[in-house]
Write a structure and sequence with these properties.
Layout (H helix, E strand, L loop, with lengths): L4 H12 L20 E8 L5 E10 L7 E3 L2 E13 L5 E13 L12 E10 L1 E11 L5 E10 L8 E2 L3 E8 L7 E2 L2 E5 L4 E3 L3 E9 L11 E10 L4 E10 L5 E8 L6 E11 L5 E11 L8
Parallel strand pairs: 13-19
Antiparallel strand pairs: 1-2, 2-6, 3-4, 4-5, 4-7, 7-8, 9-14, 10-12, 10-14, 11-12, 14-17, 15-16, 15-18, 18-19
């Protein structure tokens, strides 16, 4: 079994060139043979002037070269992501080697979920170029590509919202882990494919709310609007939320019982009722008939 270079490359480029808040349906969508895909998400990185960049990578393993060992067949690959600033200086890099094992030769072509890898960078705001390579460790065939990404300055005093993360599930937890954000395990949905008739789980954070303990109107208004590809509004949800402080972490599940298959946009509007200031953030997603998400 060898890497099918041309097919892999076309899938990879199609998925990688999507902006952070834009998604189009993969032309070769299959419930288990999902394409290479990458998602870039930005959030505030604690205190200071730096921001957190999360990179989620979906890596199919059906194109790797499997080698026979004593107790099965193995394949491995190396994933490298480097960030370069506008002066072409490398400011951060991460490299990960991962592997997959099957028990027999006949298992190589059986359906299995792709691997999901999370990497993170804490860097100053600004424009960066992400240079990524995926190398089959046996054949040394490498897929290389570049992408420019803009990281916001979440330390600014204005009312702000992080990127919206479409999840496959959001589960309350007291444990720690790479997928845990503010007491929630946010399981990635990199392709933003949502099964027909299910709910749309979304996680995001709100920064710089005006907050005075005990003061009146310590609420903010959250409006979520879903529009179809033609810009027609399909659903709108509005709810007031109590301010826990100057920052709020939110996870919502939006029911989609009457939404047909297709491409949609979720627009989130946050209004601070104490100041009347508002901010918006949008993300696209696709409703499909069936969906299998990768496991981490």
């Amino acid at each position: 079994m060898s890497i099918h270079s041309q097919k892999v490359k076309s899938w990879l480029m199609a998925a990688f060139l999507l902006p952070t808040v834009v998604l189009s349906k993969p032309s070769d969508y299959d419930s288990w043979r999902l394409p290479y895909a990458f998602e870039f998400l930005t959030l505030r990185a604690g205190t200071g002037e730096k921001s957190l960049l999360e990179v989620f990578c979906q890596i199919p393993t059906h194109y790797l070269q499997f080698i026979k060992f004593r107790d099965g067949f193995f394949a491995s690959y190396k994933l490298s992501i480097a960030l370069f600033d506008r002066s072409n200086k490398q400011v951060a890099k991460v490299s990960i080697v991962d592997s997959v094992k099957v028990n027999s030769f006949w298992d190589i072509d059986l359906p299995r979920p792709p691997h999901l890898i999370r990497s993170s960078f804490i860097v100053p705001s600004g424009e960066y170029e992400a240079r990524t390579q995926i190398t089959d460790q046996e054949t040394l065939q490498t897929l290389s590509f570049k992408r420019r990404t803009l990281i916001p300055d979440y330390s600014a005093p204005d009312l702000q919202v992080s990127d919206l993360q479409i999840a496959s599930a959001i589960i309350p937890t007291t444990e720690n882990g790479v997928l845990v954000k503010n007491g929630r395990r946010v399981e990635p949905n990199i392709l933003r494919l949502v099964e027909l008739g299910s709910k749309l789980p979304v996680y995001f954070e709100v920064y710089n709310l005006q907050y005075t303990p005990g003061a009146p109107e310590e609420d903010f208004l959250l409006t979520m609007t879903i529009a179809d590809q033609g810009g027609n509004k399909v659903k709108t949800f509005t709810k007031e939320h109590h301010k826990p402080g100057v920052t709020a972490a939110l996870s919502v599940e939006i029911p989609l019982p009457e939404v047909a298959e297709g491409l949609y946009q979720l627009l989130v509007t946050v209004q601070d009722l104490a100041t009347s200031k508002s901010v918006q953030k949008a993300v696209n997603f696709y409703v499909v008939r069936s969906n299998i998400q990768p496991n981490i």
